[in-house]
């Protein structure tokens, strides 16, 4: 049996990754594929927490560009992450994976309020915990949520699944054929070079708490398991390299 490199992980999924090629809304096929990959990891006796973005439904930045109050736009984005979290929960439960949705904004009819010790207890019981509604505060991204929750639950790594790239590049590979893919980076390099891995708040939080990050493609089935096993896929970002 394969031995996992990490015991407790935070899986960060963008909302766009759940939309598939449509780029908007939810793709049942993609959600099912992600759920199946998460189940593979759970079967390795790994504790899994998930942070899902909401960009496939609403982006706070777009709202603010429309003239909407930034805080209001961000709260709408948090609600979008709850919708994605419930969709992922449903898909996981259908294939026999016990889950809990833990929301930073209280909505007890559909999710538990986020309580750190309770979330850790769920993980210890091998339940997949899906962190919804971001940090519960405007002006913070779901990347920052992933970094914050990883620090709080003492996760070994953040696995960042992307839908359009298979790692971190020196430039956008879709626009620049000369873009170079990195295999390893430090957080200082990510910040100083302005690489669009995660926002600077999230990068700094990961760096300060020595939380490694693996950026890889979520589109290839089995990649989450490969990342958990420590296979060389995507790009690894650490405090020091």
TrEMBL record:
Enzyme class: transferase
Catalytic activity: UMP + ATP = UDP + ADP
GO cellular component: cytoplasm
Gene3D superfamilies per the UniProt record, alphabetical: Acetylglutamate kinase-like
Keyword set, alphabetical order: Allosteric enzyme, ATP-binding, Cytoplasm, Kinase, Nucleotide-binding, Pyrimidine biosynthesis, Transferase
One of the protein's GO biological processes: 'de novo' CTP biosynthetic process
Pfam families cross-referenced by the UniProt entry: AA_kinase
UniProt: UMP binding residues: 54, 74, 135-142
EC number: 2.7.4.22
Entry's localization field: Cytoplasm
Region feature (Involved in allosteric activation by GTP): 20-25
Binding sites annotated in the UniProt record for ATP: 12-15, 55, 59, 163, 169, 172
Metabolic or biological pathway: Pyrimidine metabolism; CTP biosynthesis via de novo pathway; UDP from UMP (UMPK route): step 1/1
The keyword Phosphoprotein appears for this protein: no
Keyword flag Transport: no
Limits of the Aspartate/glutamate/uridylate kinase domain: 7-217
Record comment: activity regulation: Allosterically activated by GTP. Inhibited by UTP.
A molecular function GO annotation: UMP kinase activity
Similarity comment: family membership: Belongs to the UMP kinase family.
Quaternary context: Homohexamer.
Physiological role: Catalyzes the reversible phosphorylation of UMP to UDP.
Protein name per UniProt: Uridylate kinase
Protein's organism: Sporosarcina limicola
